[in-house]
Amino acid sequence: xxxxxxxxxxxxxxxxxxxxxxxxxxxxxxxxxxxxxxxxxxxxxxxxxxxxxxxxxxxxxxxxxxxxxxxxxxxxxxxxxxxxxxxxxxxxxxxxxxxxxxxxxxxxxxxxxxxxxxxxxxxxxxxxxxxxxxxxxxxxxxxxxxxxxxxxxxxxxxxxxxxxxxxxxxxxxxxxxxxxxxxxxxxxxxxxxxxxxxxxxxxxxxxxxxxxxxxxxxxxxxxxxxxxxxxxxxxxxxxxxxxxxxxxxxxxxxxxxxxxxxxxxxxxxxxxxxxxxxxxxxxxxxxxxxxxxxxxxxxxxxxxxxxxxxxxxxxxxxxxxxx
Length: 323
Known about the structure:
By secondary structure, the chain is of the alpha+beta class. Strands 1-2-6-5-4-3 form a 6-stranded mixed β-sheet, with helices on both faces. It is rod-shaped, with a radius of gyration of 35 Å. It folds into 2 domains: 4-253, Beta Polymerase, domain 2; 254-319, Up-down Bundle (Methane Monooxygenase Hydroxylase, Chain G, domain 1), CATH 1.20.58. It has helices at 21-29, 45-52, 58-64, 119-129, 137-172, 178-209, 217-283, 298-319, and strands at residues 4-8, 34-39, 72-76, 79-86, 99-105, 109-114. The longest helix has 67 residues, at 217-283. β5 and β6 (109-114) form a beta hairpin. This is Zinc transporter. It is a multi-pass membrane protein. It comes from Martelella mediterranea. Its main location: membrane.
């Protein structure tokens, strides 16, 4: 990721990058809309901000360069400081480990910073280069929020599919191995909601508490649509969390019922063989006087008695609806 990436959003060079650092610095002094994307992890980023964006006070720069951020928004004078999160689509990364994007926007400048690559920024840069970039700062904030929300909704659909499969498996062929899948899904929902819920509140701040001066009423209506979409995402995440709790309880009940059924079967078998064990044990004691020891048919008589005892026990258990 380049340390500094700048693109003109309006004017004759819209969609193009400044040829060199001198042109970039000159463009910052003009009333021409410019988008600058910075690598928040680069050592020289702070110095660049302090030297070229003197309108930003140290507190704002510190907020833009924090290692750990939560979604939030704050309107400052003629600009706005906005922290949002996007789905992590980097190779080998977990989508719920959302990437932070820090934004400073005013009427003529848009500054974005990320610590890690973000697919939404790449898609937005491609739109700008294709001539479909934002015409105002408010338009840019709306478009960026829309792209972030679209990818969040895509991950939400994948998460919904996982929950549906888990629910179907528990109701169809429950297995103890499903417990880990349920736990993983719950963890993903919790981590995802941890960032999406504050993102909803950040957008609500821009809409209802203190709207930035550079956003028109039309742009605020667009942002309101994004806010409504994020609200629905949070509601669905809450629903998934509740469904996973129900699925976990259902799996626990099924497993408990299976164990109880097996224990019941063992108890019935023990009940059947208990009198047989007593009878055979009594006849097998090594003392004199055991009847039938000299009779050839005694063994078959004992077998018949055992069969009769088993049949009688099965009849009694059947009458009592125990089997």
